[in-house]
Specification:
The protein is mostly helical and 167 residues long. It is 59% helix and 0% strand. The chain is elongated, with a radius of gyration of 16 Å.
């Protein structure tokens, strides 16, 4: 079993609503990693459900603040969820090894995603005065003139998405 990812200040984005969801993700991932075979599938599904809502929320924030549909951050969300769901299908067929490998890969992927893509998103939300809890925008004049296709503060070519391996 690989070392679990542990929440630390290095993962904090100084945006409480985002940090809370990220800490929940880290905690759920640790539960998956510690689960015995009988508990693995339910723990994995809980992680998928949480991640689905987590990513959907961030995708709504991006949509509301000038990101193009299909921007690289949202695309990475979709790819990661697809891989997680494929793991659940394999697990339901009795093959738990891919889930265990994906859980390990997520401990490597998530800090990079949070510290790059999500940090860029947090900075963007602050720069346009977007309150992620209320959906209110205090500085609409700060919205980008052209839709953002990159990841927030970097072009996609600068932030090639790392994905959990499908094992």
């Amino acid at each position: 079993m690989s070392e679990p990812l542990v929440w630390s200040e290095s993962l904090s984005l100084s945006m409480p609503v985002m940090d809370t969801v990220h800490q929940e993700f880290v905690d759920l991932l640790a539960i998956v990693q510690a689960a015995d075979d009988d508990a693995l599938l339910p723990a994995w599904q809980t992680l998928i459900d949480h991640t689905d809502e987590h990513f959907a929320r961030e995708d709504r924030w991006m949509e509301a603040t000038g990101f193009a549909p299909g921007n690289c951050h949202s695309t990475q969300h979709a790819v990661v969820l697809k891989v997680l769901r494929e793991g659940a299908l394999r697990g339901a067929q009795g093959d738990l090894a891919p889930i265990r490998q994906m859980a390990h890969e997520l401990t490597l992927w998530f800090p990079h995603h949070a510290q790059n893509m999500d940090a860029g998103l947090a900075l963007h939300l602050k720069s346009v005065g977007y309150d992620p809890e209320t959906g209110e925008l205090s500085s609409p004049q700060a919205l980008p003139q052209e839709a953002i296709t990159g990841c927030g503060t970097h072009a996609c070519s600068d932030q090639a998405p790392a994905e959990p391996a499908a094992a």
